[in-house]
Amino acid sequence: MTRALEPVWEPIQAALDARRDPLDDPRVAEFLAERPDAAREYAELVLALERVGRVSPEHARPTPLARPRDRVAAAAVLLLLLGALAFFATRAARRPETPIAESPRAPSEVDEPRASPRSAPSAPTHTPADSASDATAFGVTHYRIERVRTTPNGREVVVLEDGRVARCTTTASEAAALAVTIERTTWAARGQELR
Amino acid sequence: MEGAWSLESDANVPARTEPSFGARLEAELPPLARHAAALVGRAGPDADDVVQEVLARAWRSRESFDARRALRPWLRATALRAWIDLCRARALRADVEARRGADPQSDAGPARDVEAREELEHALSPLDAVEREVLVRFHHRGESVRDIATALALAEGTVKSHLHRARKKLTEREERP
User: Fold this and answer.
1) What is the ipTM of this complex?
2) What is B126-177's CATH number, 1.20.1250.20, 1.10.10.10, 3.30.460.10, 1.20.1270.10?
């Protein structure tokens, strides 16, 4: 609102709400008669409102607002998502924290990077382990990493002994970190734990 | 201009102690011209148009005008209405000319639509979604406050608050250069 119009802003609004001409209100008319600057701003207000009223309907289409029904649906979806999150978080929390096996066997085989130029510099950094256990530990289950290979887009994946493939989002050289990564990425990707 | 408004038609009116309507009108011409110039922003053709329109309306209303009433406020209120009418007529004329000038075979129609949409978007850009919806429903669709309140599941007072804020923002938008 303009400062010039402020003294008569309320009666102007009231008249517009009632679809009356604000100039029919003596307070407004007298005030604007004495204040050409306020009168000019009043004219701008009236013309701006008329411009809104004059535009074609498709131009004046209001922004869709969330209706109460939409809000209820959105709340239901949010509750479902939160429930699912809580469910999986609870399951994860129930699993015992078992120390990761020390120096598990690193991949015995590493594929050469393929044609993608992005894969060229990302050769696996996992160091061969000399442990005879030949297993990567997670929780109470041990997995054997058959090999680590690099996909054409430069992402490393590990191939487990049973043939399953897990994404590996880290280039950490330690197999312990790798094992954690396997668990997390596999769990997130497939929605189930590796057993 | 004042010469053009020598009001001879009052000559037949019996002599009174009070000045005639024409004489009062002539006396108000200089302040009216200054007021019109202030109203439109500067002296010139627009201000002259406003003055002439006010004098014409005043002359048409001279029979019904209460002689005890102050003439100047009435003239100024009429000047404001005349200025608004002038702007409104120009906007409508421009709109009509744009429609007439738009060749259906050309791209002028869609271009004008895009321009109108952009202009409206620009004007409504300071408004949030609720204010915009309330403003458009009230001033474009002609819905009542009660109908808007029902449609949006809001209290009528809340609708009015949104409406007032929207007008305020619209006015602030109009003030920017």
Assistant:
1) 0.73
2) 1.10.10.10
